[in-house]
Design brief:
The complex is a heterodimer of chains A (about 160) and B (about 350). By secondary structure, chain A is an all-alpha fold. In chain A, about 95% of the residues lie in helices and about 0% in strands. Chain A is built from 2 helices and no strands. Chain B has about 350 residues and is mainly alpha-helical. Chain B has one domain. In chain B, a hairpin with a 3-residue loop joins strand 1 and strand 2. In chain B, about 35% of the residues are buried. The chains are: A mainly alpha (about 160), B mainly alpha (about 350). Chains A and B meet through helix 1 of A and strand 3, helix 3, helix 4, helix 5 and helix 7 of B.
Chain lengths: ~160, ~350
Amino acid sequence: MNINLTLFGQMVTFAFFVWFCMKFVWPVIIESMEERQKKIADGLDAADRALRDLELAQNKATDQMKEAKLEAAGIVDQANKRANQIVDEAKVQARTEGDRLKVAAEAEIEQEINRAKEELRTAVAGLALAGAEKVLEASIDDKANRALVDNLAAQL
Amino acid sequence: MAGENPASTTEYIQHHLQNLVYGKHPDTGWGFAHSSQEAMDMGFWAIHVDSMVWSIGLGSLFCWMFLRAAKKAHTGVPAGWLNFVEMIVEFIDGQVKDSFHGRNKMVAPLALTVFVWIFLMNLMDLLPVDLIPTLLAMSGVSYQKIVPSTDPNVTLGMALAVFILMVYYSFKIKGTGFVKELTMHPFNHWAFIPINLFMETVGLLAKPFSLGLRLFGNMYAGEMIFILIATMFAAGAGAGLVSGGLHAQLFGEETSALFWLVIFVLVVSVCWLNLKGKVSTGKTVLLCMAFMAIGGGVFALGGGLMQWGWAVFHILVITLQAFIFMVLTVVYLSMAHEDH
């Protein structure tokens, strides 16, 4: 319990250990801790930034999607319209073509009829002439009668 | 162990409170003191070998453990021991930043050293009081105090070192302002210089003494209570078992020795069965306590429980005392840095 040299021994030991801790232990640990703190802060910052970037990108993506949808809808509309138009055009064309064909056919038929009539007339005129010739036999002037008969045939 | 008569109890306590002293005795020359009287006769120029060895040993342990962490320190994810060390370092750093406002690179490492070193020295108090002294006594070392902080030399030595730093920094930072502080406070008149000087000096000197004596007093009292419990009962149930057996062996009570041996075997086998998973832990504790109570008597069991209870309480005391010493050191140094 008496005070003795141990007092100074302890003081010297104390000084040595404080020096040791100050030189080799404290700065190393505190430095690495501070560095890690900075690293973590940077990391958190980066994460925040990335989150913001992500949000922006998402917004952009949504906008683009909306735009694309609108565009697509426009294209579909336009295509529908165009299709209708084409169908309409085709209808009109078909109808005119049909009409034209009908007119042509009718004209041909008319022509055929006319030709048939003509032939018939000629044939009738010939027949009538031949009949009259048979009936009258050579007494009749061929030239004057023919004009008469032709006249008759034209009246048919 | 247990005190049968007052004389041996007193002797037991005194033996436990005597350091291992090496010095020059006026009659016998250089050597270890063989009694308290011889230690007293050696005067100032003697050294407490046990205090020095334990405190240097524990300080080296602190340095080595923390140096190992510092070597491994990196900026990645810390694990294990490094994690623990960083926790302590951060705690100390926070404390120092809170109470020390000057710019001094030495204060924080100083605080760390003070805290961990004193904690380790106090921690020795939790070892069973008789364990190491008895083992050393077997190898011929007559005295041993394993708790350096129960030696006033150790605590006052640290406090004086802090005091020297206080005075040094006071002069360094304040210069003549420090002299003025000592002479012109609290009465700012030249006629009061002697009174001021006296009051301020007392105030200044009271700091290291209260610092050192507080730690010493607390640890000494704690140690004393461990010793007293050990003298009132046997030194714990386990120690009671072994020592009782040894006692019987040494003094030839063979039937008693056999009895102890049987109990010892029973306790060990119950513990072994528990480890093998055959007996539940609750049952093991109850059985061991029952065996110990039969073997060591109710007093031995009571002593063991009280030692344990006081040790649990003492964990708070040793941490708190280390913390108080650290905080006060920082505060005193902070005051030395403050220029009014």
